[in-house]
Amino acid sequence: MDIYVPDYYENFRCIGGTCHDSCCIGWEIDIDKASLEKYMKFPGALGDELRANITRSEDGSDCFALGENDRCPFLNENNLCRLIIAGGEEMLCEICSLHPRFREWFGDRCEMGIGLCCEEAARIIIGYDKPFGLHKIGSEEGGEALSPAEKRLLEIRAELFKAINEAESYAGMTEALLRISAQAESELTGNSPARITFPRDSAYAEKAVSLITSLEPINAGWEHLCQKLSPINIIPENKALAGYKDLLSYYIFRYFMRSASDGEIFLKTALGVFSAEAVSLIMSISGQSLADSACLWSKETEYSLENLELIYDFLYELYYT
Ligand code: SF4
């Protein structure tokens, strides 16, 4: 199995104590089996502390019990991880050592990326000044050869990246992405959406505001932001192209190939286009940068299956009915 990463992947380094929004605050971290075994046997005072701070989450998985202000009990006053300080990165459980990286597998191919939910990763992704590209970083055992459909989807994804790179306007870029994806869905599944253009009318604006404000709040400040939201700021104009090329490349990279298993080719692209609109909206009402707005949207949607499902349902209704 070959492993590929975006060209900016190696630029990522956690900024630790200078991060405004440590990922070690507010998240219940599930501990994988191998790490749990290691923690249960770990000697000395740190071992005692580890065992005293492991609890069971509502879904029955083992996790660290969050402390005051929902902080990981091993996060020190400088927002640095005491486990790393004491024993290096190998002390981390799987989720902590991977975050904010993600992996997607299909056939004999594994793709890894960094997620927009991390403010430093978002700055790298959105500030990348070259066309999106991938390179191979290694191979490992396992995986079956790519199916003909997976190979074709990879070709279509390359077309989408090309359309992004060659776009001269935001509207032209999103139109091309939706058109290519609709054609691909028709070719590979026989289905096609009832419409392929992004709506820009007041009925759409009302529905989009209603959807965004109905998402389960994941971040502190999300509800406050939603209070400022109104249908009149939902139809943004004249977006600066460069940052949105990076943003749409990220969504196409992270989600498009998932359609190999569910056949929802067009909806994967529609998710990226809608996310770009939502990020633009957050930016306009919060005054934050594009990268910080993308980070906020990512935390609200990419790690909540419930919120992601609500968005897919909304997009299905928008484009297929
Ligand atoms: S959000 Fe990113 S930069 Fe901040 S602590 Fe987590 S991994 Fe590091």
Our estimate of the beta-strand percent is 5-15%
Give the C-alpha Rg: 21 Å
The count of helical stretches stands at 14
Write down how many β-strands occur, each being a DSSP E stretch of 2 or more residues: 6
**Alpha-carbon distance between the two ends:** 40 Å
Q: Sheet bearing the most strands, described?
A: 4 strands, mixed
- The side-by-side strand order for the widest beta sheet comes to 4-5-1-6
- SS-derived structural category: alpha+beta
Number of domains: 2
Shape: globular
Mean pLDDT: 92
Low-confidence stretches: none
Instruction: Sketch the topology as an H/E string, one letter per element.
Output: EHHEEHHEEHEHHHHHHHHH
Small molecules in complex: iron/sulfur cluster
What's the helical proportion of residues? 40-55%
List keywords for this structure.
single chain, 321 residues, alpha+beta, 2 domains, four-stranded mixed beta sheet, two-stranded antiparallel sheet, 51% helix, globular, binds iron/sulfur cluster
